[in-house]
Specification:
With about 210 residues, the protein is an alpha+beta fold. Helix content is about 30%, strand content about 40%.
Length: about 210
């Protein structure tokens, strides 16, 4: 490593990255930056197992995005989640039907998320059952978002309560073996001027 590169690394400061408040604001890593504003927009990935110590949640991958910083910490906002491919593959069975529905829904406090619900039936089902279950996916997710704050909705998705509700409603149409909230993505956040895209781009502050 050249002396110039070593000098740049020595000039960097390490910031402790904190999970969002809904996950207890616990430290989830460190990020180096020579200027704090360069942290903005950085995405940190972790698992629910890393946050809770519950190994049964190792397949739930979480993405947090830095939106604020101070002299010591980088604060993050929930950006999205996704179940691991290996997990989804493990719960998929032959002679059954996998039904997915993608829903753009807004929480009661104005956050817009794109959420994918997944229902796995006990046996192969026909097209009419598929359509009916997709309607259930849309209804359950939309209504859950409308009656929940952003933090409440995130918890329901990640900790499984929303999947249980989805399974309960889908079973009224056809035998269901498993239901999951497969993935989510934060699309927009509320501001005094209206919705703003959730993607954060770091800009050097004007002095």
């Amino acid at each position: 490593m050249s002396s110039a590169v070593r000098g740049k690394w020595r000039a960097k400061k390490w910031y402790t990255v904190l999970a969002p408040e809904v996950f207890g604001s616990i430290p989830i890593g460190s990020i180096p930056a020579d200027e704090g504003w360069k942290l903005l927009g950085r995405v940190v990935e972790t698992t629910l197992f890393d946050l809770t110590g519950d190994f049964t949640k190792h397949y739930i991958h979480l993405r947090f995005q830095v939106y604020r910083y101070d002299d010591e910490y980088a604060y993050t906002r929930f950006k999205g989640h996704e179940l691991s491919r290996d997990y989804v593959k493990s719960i998929t069975r032959r002679r059954s039907t996998k039904i997915a529905g993608i829903v753009d829904a807004m929480t009661s406090d104005g956050y817009l998320l794109r959420t994918t619900g997944l229902v796995l039936t006990a046996y192969n089902c026909n097209s009419s059952h598929k359509r009916a279950i997709r309607r259930v996916i849309f209804q359950v997710i939309s209504e859950a978002a409308q009656r929940s704050t952003f933090d409440e909705f995130v918890k329901a998705m990640v900790f499984g309560n929303l999947a249980l509700e989805l399974m309960s409603q889908a079973k009224k149409i056809y035998p269901v073996r498993k239901a999951e909230i497969y993935k989510s993505k934060l699309l927009a956040i509320p501001t005094p001027a209206g919705l703003r895209r959730a993607t954060i781009v770091a800009h050097k502050p004007v002095s």
